[in-house]
Amino acid sequence: MEQLFNIDLKKIPSTSKKEELDRKKNLELFFAKGLPNKKDENWKFTDLNFIIKKNFKNISNNYDFIFEKKIELINDFEHNYIVLVNGSYKFSNIEFEDKEKVKIKSLKSLEGTNNHSKNNLYCLNKALSLGGLLIEIKENYKCKKPIIIYNYLTSNLDDKIINNSNKIKLNQNSELTLIEYNIDEKSKFIKNTFENIEIEDNSILRSIFVQKTNSNGYYYKSIIGSQGYNSSYQNFILSSGMKFNKVDLEMNLNKENSNCFILSGLSMNNDEHQEIKTL
């Protein structure tokens, strides 16, 4: 397994000796178990170990990249937006909202998600993550316009692995439509994302994923969340031309009258693999 990965933890800035040791420990845990395969019940339809070994030879965590391109915003409808480059938060604009009611910030490298400990890819994420994104909608606030996340992947990511983690929280009586708009330049990379969602009483989160272009990327996302009374989580996945995409979704409906559903429209070629799994 270590021969497949060319990981250099020194390339990741650590804020403390403890963080440095935590990263090393998590990387060792990942190498000890390796990539998941069909022997794992949660991966019985996707042998990730076979797929990655077949398509990658020397996976590194070199995050050096130059981003000078201007991202073309969608002009068909009014919206707020967030720009991520290679999984890292760059800037945002929430001009249509009360800025006291919508909180958006970058997560620090190990200030990530929790409750994913049974997933060995989480150890890899904890070892290599540079951070991610936090979105919080305050109590009694319904966003006036959607928020689009322009998720841009640069052209120099061949044989690289990107690890990021996100947190989304809707406080009581709030509402958000969130659109993740994926744009990549056809590099062959791995993107390993972990996301925590908290939807409190009487709140609604609509999450829409759109893949703009054909992609040679290998995407994995694990979503774990909790919902309060009379809350709703609606997830729509619309993609075509993705080489590999697997989504694991585990939402805990903690109180009555809460609902969760996931709908997808996928267009696939014979050599493409997509799986959506609910737990």
Summarize the structure in words.
With about 280 residues, this protein is mainly β. It has helices at about 15-35, 50-55, 120-130, and strands spanning about 5, 60, 80-85, 90-95, 100-105, 130-135, 145-155, 160-170, 175-185, 190-200, 205-210, 215-225, 230-240, 240-255, 260-265, 275-279. A seven-stranded mixed sheet has the order 4-3-7-9-11-13-15, with no helix packed on it. A seven-stranded mixed sheet has the order 5-6-8-10-12-14-16, covered by helices on one side. The protein has a two-stranded parallel ribbon with strand order 1-2. Helix 1 runs antiparallel to helix 3. The two termini are about 30 Å apart.
How many helical elements?
Answer: 3
Shape: globular
Share in β-strands = 35-45%
Strand order of the largest sheet: 4-3-7-9-11-13-15
The mean pLDDT is 91
Spans of at least 5 consecutive residues with low confidence: none
Structural class by SSE content:
mainly beta
- The level of helicity is 10-25%
Radius of gyration: 18 Å
Query: What is the element string, with H for helices and E for strands?
Result: EHHEEEEHEEEEEEEEEEE
Characterize the main sheet: 7 strands, mixed
- Tell me how many strands there are: 16
What distance separates the N and C termini?
28 Å
List keywords for this structure.
globular, 16 strands, seven-stranded mixed beta sheet, single chain, 279 residues, mainly beta, 3 helices
Brief characterization of the structure:
This protein is mainly beta and 279 residues long. It contains 3 helices and 16 strands. A hairpin with a 2-residue loop joins strand 3 (80-85) and strand 4.
